[in-house]
Amino acid sequence: MTQEVIKIRGGQTLKGEVTISGAKNSAVAIIPATLLAQGQVKLDGLPQISDVETLVSLLEDLNIKAQLNGKTLEVDTSEIQNAPLPNNKVESLRASYYMMGAMLGRFKKCVIGLPGGCPLGPRPIDQHIKGFKALGAEIDESNDTSMKIEAKELHGANIFLDMVSVGATINIMLAAVHAKGQTVIENAAKEPEVVDVANFLNSLGANIKGAGTSTLKINGVKDLHGSEYQIIPDRIEAGTYMCIAAAVGEEITINNIVPKHVEALTVKLKELGVDIEIDGDAEKAIIKRKPMYKNVDIKTLVYPGFATDLQQPITPLLFMADGPSFVTETIYPARFRHVDELKHMGANIDADMQTGTATIKPSTLNGADVYASDLRAGACLIIAGLLAEGITTIYNVRHIYRGYTDIVTHLKTLGADIWTEEV
User: Which site among 51, 144, 170, 421 is 20 to 30 Å from 214 CA-CA?
Assistant: First the structure.
């Protein structure tokens, strides 16, 4: 059986412009949210990634007319039917769990396979289930491969999340839009993608206040109409290209960014000594690489802190520093599967899984065969490959395609010596 790999001949200096796609982590929640609409919905600015295609296919399994054309999705729910959702599709991406909240909100019941996605260690959905139960749902988890969620009636509730969770915040919001009365989510996630989903639901006629703060209030409404909505730019894709530019960019302009959304990364890049200019009016960043950077310490935190999704892409820059750097992962302590792959490339890096801290020392990287264990590890290995001497071959590239639109084409356009092969 053949599989596609990405090959990179490192050492090229990149130059030019790249335009950032719509936010993956918004799109994967807003697409399920469209099934709540009683009318036609048009989404613009979607990323062209495999996760979007999988979710559109799940809508079609509910007899929804869904027309995906490039970055635009048109949805018509007029003939929607509730149906059990097949496990093989649901298993392929973590964000399929948003179908739970949306279907519970629309039908008051659903049967859905258990979600999959990137293997980042335990990421339980107990906070989602806690929220659904508070709204009046009963959960049957007796089946090993699927879950049945049902409510006679959904009613407003006060829900305090035991931990800040983007997924749980959004899923409870989806389930609560039609609930009777007011739902209050305390300790809610503040990420821009949470705000984006709330704005989308409000464009359908929902009544949600407080998005972007730790207290979300959802006043239930009876009906939602259609709308046309533009997805926000992807701050993680933007951050990844900012790291690429800092690693190998003679001068790279990154268009379609929201400066506030990448502020934590921008501050850290400046601390490293990266030559970076942010143009807020034009929504772009201009970055030029330097041959050496200062060592820094990084600690991942919930938004507006340093994003966990960017700790892997920034790691290759730390090999260019003048001393040891430390990266502490507080969100997903197991998110260090890229460390062994970087070692294959000659990196001086070690991770202590007890403390969730990686120690990164100045290193010269060499091309090697490496495996992308998850989406952002794949981005890290691409940047390492661009920096390395010789050819790097990256396997498991399906993870990379789940989150980055046409990344190989974009890098070629910037001047990278990068291509794909079947092996």
Answer: 51
Q: Tell me whether residue 380 is one of the annotated catalytic residues.
A: no
Structure tokens at 272: 């490293």
pLDDT digits (tens, 9 = 90+) for 101-159: 999 999 999 998 877 554 444 457 889 999 999 999 999 988 877 889 999 999 999 99
List Cβ neighbours of 351 (8 Å cut-off, separation of 6 or more): 336, 339, 357, 358, 359
Check 110, 118, 243, 380 and give the catalytic one.
118
Q: Which two tokens stand for residue 261?
A: 């959304």
The two tokens of residue 170 are 């959004």
Q: Is 153 exposed, middle or buried (0-12, 13-18, 19+ CB in 10 A)?
A: exposed
Record the pTM: 0.94
Q: Give, for 68, the enclosing helix (H) or strand (E).
A: strand 65-69
354-371 per-residue burial string, b: 16 or more CB within 10 A, e: under 16: eebbbebebbebbbbebb
Q: What is the pLDDT of residue 185?
A: 98
Tokens of 149: 């969620």
**Which whole-number Å values give the CA distances from 74 to 42, 57, 99, 111, 326, in the listed order?**
5, 13, 18, 25, 45
258 in Cβ contact with 236 (< 8 Å): no
pLDDT in tens, 266-290: 999 999 999 999 998 999 999 999 9
Pairing between strand 158-160 and 182-186? parallel
